[in-house]
# Entry
Amino acid sequence: MLVSVDALHRLLGAGSCLLVDCRFDLLQPQNGLQSYLDGHIPQAVYAHLNHHLSSEITPQSGRHPLPTADDFASFLASTGWQKSKLLIAYDGGNNAFSVRLWGLMRYFGLPAALLDGGMEAWISAGLPLQIGTARTEAGERPELTPNHNLTVSAEEILSQMGELTLIDARAPERFSGATEPLDSKSGHIPGALNRPMGLNLNAQGQFKSPQQLSEEFGMLLDDIGPRKVVHYCGSGVTACHNAFAMELAGLGTSQIYPGSWSEWIKDPSRPIETSV
# Structure
């Protein structure tokens, strides 16, 4: 699930992985691709959050709806992906965006890993960068089937209020409703717990040890099993960070509410809670 810089360097040398750069800026969506063109880890292809890892926004959806199986299969084919190579995703450092690609691979039943510390760790290790685009050869288009047991809809949350444990990955000030820089309403889904995704990382921006993550999630969840846990965030992206951390900790497979807060607030009948 998690690959170090040294391990990635060896895998790239052996030609046994597909590396995907997922850098992105929510406020300036063009910046991620430009950063990639200015310099990326050699052999990496680029995945744009809006264009490759999401589908079109609708009046009822959140900001980053899941891509269809057909569209995601087309994206994988365009990268040259093949089952014999491990897909490894990275972003600027904290895996806030690359974890979306991990989540999609999991959703479609495919293995994937993250580069621990991302681009920041690679640069800190003094390793070289590549400018421009990596040369790729399109591969065969895979047949994909989504695992709907890994996701939960707004309707399912409403019908199971009090039965599911919701974990919100947003910053505390957004969870409380004190501020909301991206969406039209502030607050959180009633009864949700707040675990900002940054709590999964150490001071160097790398994931905490599985033991530490297990202890922290254990204190948050008590005896609640992973199948009763549903992660959400602003648009279903950083929700994957907490899901990844739970799996890394050996706590099992939890679920994600893909529409998240930006979808929840589209229907005025859905309840909202604040703590300010």
